[in-house]
DNA sequence: TTGCTTACTTACTACTAAGTAAGTACGTTT
DNA sequence: AAACGTACTTACTTAGTAGTAAGTAAGCAA
């Protein structure tokens, strides 16, 4: 169209974002540099600055993309049409995938960024808050619906329970990195059996 | 005695360790430097190197001290003589204190170091594993005893449940940093009501 | 063909990081 | 008084950090 969007241009920009995301999840925001990205992509560090002038913009772009993914995902027919327990299962699957990631277990966005939170630029802090809030609200809705129709069980407010479940999931990926996947399995199984009625 | 252990020497060493610990919990291992410590303590960076030649040794010392504290704490009469629910409560209090820390909510050791885990020197990784394992084992014992005498309720293996609870606690402090203390309160309340029988 | 845009590279600045070697002031020991 | 150990400072090296300014090759547009 008007923007001819040459394939290579788009590619490099996206490849930078993909790699930065990977490095963020693997090492944290303060422990990866433009040099790491540049070396891996076989370009010069200045090329990264061309696409993302500052590290703050790069970091914000990573979170923003993840927020867009969340919004798209939760609106997908193959997600909205599931029953509450299936939606919960779909969420757990996302974390299972991360735990089994190719280059060693990754943490989730929240876990990776929350640890460095106080050192993050303000725009990144704000984006992260938005992301976390929207995810919690979505899960709270799923839990409320599930308890209403008897397919899920828990005590307390759905929002509190959602916050607790997401917190546990975020933590469980960090545990997986320190203690291996078995601990992660234990924790997920524990979550699973507590939320689903024994009868079902 | 043989080592005259001049007061100032001991003081500076300890003050370095205290401040490094504080910075680690606030900013993560990769986001504090010898300069930060030196400036705050009004000495030169080389003075820090004198006491802790490398950052790896400083980091290891922080974890090791925390491990010693744990071993001492769990053996204290005022802890061992408590009932299982009281021991659980004592553990939760440690986290509540961190959440309400003076200079903004701190995360726990595990949360702070797990995020940076892949960038940590091997000795620090090993010390952290030991610390986490001992803490989980201790809590598993408390949970098992509590379920046996009917004062605590949960499903699954005590070790799995202990891992889940500690994971949730670690995560909850990260949440507190991002979303404020109220979310933290929700999560702790949720944990509390689930573990303690409604009747009690 | 001239000019403009895109996507870089080269070469740099300014700064910070961990770590080291040599020197010094001071108190204790001999 | 001489020697020594402790606890530093001064001055440095090496290696990285984010970020910038200027140049360039390739492609498209008038």
**Which percent bin holds the helix content of chain A?**
over 70%
N/C terminus separation of chain A: 53 Å
Number of domains of chain A: 1
User: Which percent band covers the strand fraction of chain A?
Assistant: under 5%
Instruction: Examine the secondary-structure arrangement and name the CATH architecture of chain A.
Output: Orthogonal Bundle
Q: Which structural class matches the secondary elements of chain A? A: mainly alpha
What is the oligomeric state here? homodimer
Largest sheet of chain A: none
Q: What is the CATH level 1 assignment of chain A?
A: Mainly Alpha
Shape of chain A: elongated
Order of helices and strands of chain A: HHHHHHHHHH
Q: Would you identify the CATH H-level superfamily of chain A?
A: Tetracycline Repressor, domain 2
Could you report the average pLDDT of chain A, rounded to the nearest whole number? 91
CATH topology type of chain A:
Tetracycline Repressor, domain 2
Q: How many extended strands of chain A? A: 0
Individual helix count of chain A: 10
Rg from Cα of chain A:
19 Å
Largest interface: A-B, 47 and 47 residues
List low-pLDDT spans of chain A: 1-9
Structure overview:
2 copies of one chain form a homodimer. Chain A is an all-alpha fold. The first copy, chain A, has one domain: Orthogonal Bundle (Tetracycline Repressor, domain 2), CATH 1.10.357. Helix content of chain A is 74%, strand content 0%. Chain A contains 10 helices and no strands. The longest helix of chain A has 27 residues, at 122-148. The N and C termini of chain A lie far apart (53 Å). Mean pLDDT of chain A is 91; it is low at 1-9. Chains A and B meet through helix 7, helix 8, helix 9 and helix 10 of A and helix 7, helix 8, helix 9 and helix 10 of B. The structure holds a DNA duplex (30 and 30 nucleotides).
